[in-house]
Design a protein that fits this description.
With 75 residues, this protein is mainly beta. It is built from no helices and 5 strands.
Length: 75
């Protein structure tokens, strides 16, 4: 974090989309972020417990990546 800098990021809502996680369909908002060093698209939802990132695809200086939630437990 000693080399962290604050940069502007653009954010916009792309659409709503259902994503299947462990056999359960979850309605998510697809949000796209972009800045001078990277860009990503996130599939997010929320409930009384907080915000959940269900999927994230992105690219930056280190290359491209994809993150996907594969199962959900009950709390």
């Amino acid at each position: 974090m000693e080399q962290a800098t604050v940069v502007p990021r653009r954010c916009h809502l792309v659409r709503s989309e259902e994503v299947e996680v462990g056999g359960r369909k979850i309605l998510c908002k697809v949000v796209e972020f972009s800045g001078p060093n990277n860009r990503c698209r996130r599939w997010v939802t929320s409930d009384e417990r907080g915000v959940l990132i269900v999927r994230q695809d992105g690219s930056g200086k280190g290359g491209t990546y994809s993150l996907r939630l594969i199962s959900m437990g009950e709390l």
